[in-house]
Amino acid sequence: MEYSLVCHSLYALWSSPVKKKLILLSIMFLIWVYMLYSCVGYCSTMPSLVVDSHRGKETGSAVGKRTESSSRTDLVSRLLAKPQPWEDIESDYEEPSIRTAASRDLLNNELETDRADEWDEMRGEQQRAPEPSAMSSFSNGSGSKKLPQAIIIGVKKGGTRALLEFLRVHPDIRAVGAEPHFFDRNYENGLEWYRELMPKTLEGQITMEKTPSYFVTREAPARISAMSRDTKLIVVVRDPVTRAISDYTQTLSKKPDIPSFESLTFKNRTTGLIDTSWSAIQIGIYAKHLDNWLQYFPMEQILFVSGERLISDPAGELGRVQDFLGLKRIITDKHFYFNQTKGFPCLKKAEGSSKPHCLGKTKGRTHPNIDPEVVQRLRDFYRPFNMKFYQMTGHNFGWD
């Protein structure tokens, strides 16, 4: 009898239109509160950028605390150090032994330019950052922060930002926006500091980051290997001559008073001796840098993406990357359109947005006119290193 009364009461409660609406509203309110909580969890993983409009200064919490004077001194001292001799290729070009004052000034300019461009990229990301959808908020509010399983380690001015932006469309890839520079500038902060920079991920999702300077940092391979020997590495490479000019163009955009490209390229213009102490030249000796990485990682764990094909066939290159990461090929031709003005492919829909997205103003700068003889001399210089790189990777990138 009591059971029947209870059932009758519950039925009466549910059958009442007013009470039914109250119950449904209560359930919807609880769902809304949980989604709000999830959104807070998502926002906490985003790198923050604080701009002081009165002083014109910028600070970023995503890259942690920095002691600018000491970290810059350490980085400059490492880059100014004499490169280790590389015996695989005989060449008539001398290794640098002493850098001039002008070279040191240029190096400081390049470091400042790199950081300025990083802030520009972060500002661009925040300006286009959409409100997360209900599903993305739900998933990102849970999960945990993990050390990256895959890292884009290079190269500067090769197309790393484009690759990362394209990859972030994939639902199983979560990537930090700002470059952490952990394995070159901030290693003393420890792995827990590094982990805290990463976004939260669910089971089956991959955590990624990109810092192009890792590829040319001598200590980076050992440090990444110490973190995890299973880390997958991605390197975006580009014609080293075009890359060097692009590198110079970036510095020139911030420091218009720097010496000409031609004067920086040669130690002695009469003899045609290339100045390999200039980082814009040194970065493009890919085979030399790869040799350092192969001391710690097998070739099977390194994927080389063509910067040229990333422009001409983005879906094809993204397919290779998704295969390398063990992910389903979700990013396809339907995600891209070619922007004739910028000369680059753009996303029809960016991550979490319904609007098209192209890379910011720091990408696709117009290159200055360079003396064709200088360009040819550089091609002659890089040719033996390119051939060695083709042999090491088993892929002809067609730069010669």
From TrEMBL:
Membrane topology term: Single-pass type II membrane protein
Enzyme Commission code(s) on record: 2.8.2.-
InterPro entries cross-referenced by the UniProt entry: NST/OST, P-loop_NTPase, Sulfotransferase_dom
Keywords, comma-separated and alphabetical: Disulfide bond, Glycoprotein, Golgi apparatus, Membrane, Signal-anchor, Transferase, Transmembrane, Transmembrane helix
Keyword Disulfide bond: yes
Compositional bias ranges of the Low complexity kind: 133-144
Disulphide bridges, residue numbers: C346-C358
Active site feature: K157 (for sulfotransferase activity)
Subcellular location, principal: membrane
Positions with biased composition (Basic and acidic residues): 113-128
Start and end residues of each stretch annotated as Disordered: 113-144
Gene Ontology terms: cellular component: Golgi membrane
Segments crossing the lipid bilayer: 21-37
Domain of life of the source: Eukaryota
Statement: the UniProt record of this protein carries the keyword Chaperone: no
Residues in Sulfotransferase domain copies: 148-383
Binding-site residues for 3'-phosphoadenylyl sulfate, renumbered to this chain: K157, G158, G159, T160, R161, R238, S246, K363, G364, R365, T366, H367
Localization per record: Endomembrane system; Golgi apparatus membrane
Family membership noted in the UniProt record: Belongs to the sulfotransferase 1 family.
PANTHER family named in the record: HEPARAN SULFATE GLUCOSAMINE 3-O-SULFOTRANSFERASE 3B1, HEPARAN SULFATE SULFOTRANSFERASE
Identification of the protein by name: Sulfotransferase
Species name: Seriola lalandi dorsalis
